[in-house]
Amino acid sequence: MDFTEIDREDFSSLLEEIGRTSMPFGKYGPSKYPPRGVPVFDLPAEYLAWFAKKGFPNGRLGELLATVFEIKECGADEVFQPLRHSNGGRFRLSRKPSQAFDFGSNPGHE
After folding, report:
1. Model confidence over 77-89: pLDDT tens digits?
2. Residues 6+ apart with CB under 8 A from 30
């Protein structure tokens, strides 16, 4: 898709659809990021680049991922800010490390 050939209304509709779409499978899907997975507009550029190299999924999801990749690749990621704002901010991708405490025996302190 060449963004010079899309009109404002179509682009607005496309952004709305991107805003409603989350990654349904894989590394950023619901099994790792419940309940819906990562919003496609917040997927890392490297992950999208991997799909660009290996092939995007078939169907509408693949089209949306390719569009997000193209937008990010040309440095226009800020276009997703209104979507992030309406979702409460950028999706947090880093998982909190699990904290483990060992309250086992401590020599000299019984």
Report:
1. 999 999 999 988 8
2. 22, 24, 36, 37
